[in-house]
Amino acid sequence: MRQTLQRCLGPNSSSCYYGFEPNPVFTQSLLQLESQRRKMGIRVHVQTRTAFGVRDGTAQLHIDNESHHLGSSLRSIAASGAVETVREIDGARFLHELKQYSGFIAAKLDVEGYEYELLPHLLRNGAACGVVALLAVEWHSAANVTLGHALGALRSVNETMPELLTRQLESLDCRAVALSWV
User: Fold this and answer.
1) Which of 113, 101, 109 is CA-nearest to residue 135?
2) d(Cα 105, Cα 70) in Å, to the nearest integer?
3) Largest CA distance in the chain
4) How far apart are CA 32 and CA 51, in angstroms?
5) Model's pTM, two decimal places?
6) Which residues contact residue 101 at a Cβ distance below 8 angstroms, ignoring those fewer than 6 apart?
């Protein structure tokens, strides 16, 4: 497995990696990581102070001071600190543009509760189906029912968010695979 990863992520890789991080706390370390990877020949682009979201423009990032800034989110329920204005890009538009250059797109979403607004947007705009081949989502506990209503009625109250997303992708005759990321 390690050899496979090294071949995939190594200097001879034809892959390109994009990352979006709205939290300014991580800007310096991400820019250093980007620079190190580029020196190794890895094509990587990190957009700092930028949220992968539902529209082009700006957004309010609610900084979580209680958990080392790891719970900062575009959702105000996660906030325990300051609010920062950050750039927001329309994730569906970005993925459609990226599709022009790539045959295989894998997306990993860890957006601290914002997945409940972002995923319906990606589905409505065709980015989660037909553009992304692999969609890994880190689910957060806030507002599970809200996404259920946004995607369609839950089969039962016990249906998990990953099951709901998988069912929605299947109903669209989508070939994308949805995974839960822990």
Assistant:
1) 109
2) 26
3) 51
4) 19
5) 0.76
6) 16
